[in-house]
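PROTEIN DATA CARD
Card holder: DHA2 family efflux MFS transporter permease subunit
Chain length: 512
Origin: Frankia umida
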Amino acid sequence: MTGAADDRLGRRHQDQPGAKPSSEPSSEQRIGWPVWRLAGVIVFGAFASGMDASLANIGLKSISSDLGSTLATTQWVTSGYLLALAVSLPLSGWLGRRYGPGRVWLASLVAFTVASGLCAAAPTVAGLIALRFLQGLAGGLLIPAGQTVLGRAVGSARLGRVMATLGIVVAVAPALGPVIGGLILHGGSWRWLFAINLPIGAVGLALGLRYLPRGERGRAPHLDWPGLLLISTGLPALVYALTAWGDRGSLAHPVVVGALAVGVGALAAFVARCLRHREPLLDLRLYRRNQVYRAATVTTGLTGMILFGSGLVFPLYLQVGQGQSVLATGLRLLGLGAATALVMPAAGRLTDRHGGGVVSAIGCATLVAVSVAFALLPLDAGEVVIQIVLALFGAATAFAAVPAGIAAYKTVTPEQLPDATTTVNIVQRVGGALGGALLAVVIARNLPDDPEGAFRHAFWLIALTGLLGLLSALWLHHALRGAEQSGRTGCAPRPGGGSAPVEPGAGVLEDA
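Structure generated from the sequence above:
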């Protein structure tokens, strides 16, 4: 049955006399098979994009050797991909309104898959870097476009459970990257690091063409080219400044200062333009009139710092601190990803029942406790102890990071959802870049003289960030309670009833 057929069934059900609307705000409302199937289709794009963020890291040395390049140049295979992700995100909202989020997802998956095949055949490192940039442009659209499709399909009352399914893949895919990459390099060429996306993309495209709702072609405003130029300059410059800060170990380095000035200046001009322009590239006025959205986005940024920052710390902790091999490190990190995946559905269900603020607060409080435990552990701690603490960290990350994003999406209308998913993803990625840069600086400065102290300081910094996340999550909880009491649209239902109305039309699959 196609997405269009599912949509017609949903609409017929709504049209029947006395039929219960599919978007009725009940946290216990059953989610039908068509929605779960749709989530499964979107998972393919999320998995490919997320895995590629870490998969190539493990092959940089092999690529350098094979293509006759220096490691400093080859690292742009990874950095260029991350910068491209930041560049393409702002276009996601406009493209979704103009062509329909389903069409954007399909086109992005095609482009991502083709670029992956070309990366596998790249003859020079310069060509590989350019193709990785194109791959990143496509990959940056996959997750926000997929989130928009799901958000419109399921409705706000059940959004937590479905988004948590997508969140499993988003969280686990980067953790699987080093493991899969290590296995590939153990028995084959680095080119298979990119060729592996060909079958994944082909399966995802076949399923998407059959089941993905395309969305309506909208009356999107004219593309704000000056705004696009500002944010396309500001975001990469800011991400590059943070990355360069980590590489050079000094915020006063001329390259860092210059990139930071360009990034902050361009983004400040972009924000000012969006607040004044009648048809902005992104509707940042959501922050002005929606306290829940403000609090949820701040919480997402702080938990993004922990999510992506810890992704840098843990491999170094195991490889440098404990002397593990690349493959052994990847296998040991499976426990972290597995714990996140196992807990994610529970985080989604609890978010639907109790709201994102309280769930995220519990996760952030646990992150603080586990980070302090890591800071106090000696580097030669036993394998069992390390695996237990890693699993607790992964579970806490699921509770901290996922509910905040869901809360942001729940409180906006379907028309605002493309802008909301885009903005939240931008804040999370910039937060992740900031977290990674700060932790890299802390470790780099202390590692030569005091390896144990280097990681101790890093985990204390993660604990501090978790504490800030806890305060932000409590702010989100307060904002959600206020919104429910005032009857704001899209708020999560409270246990026992009394939930706010849900946006019209949510929960019905769109026309294909």
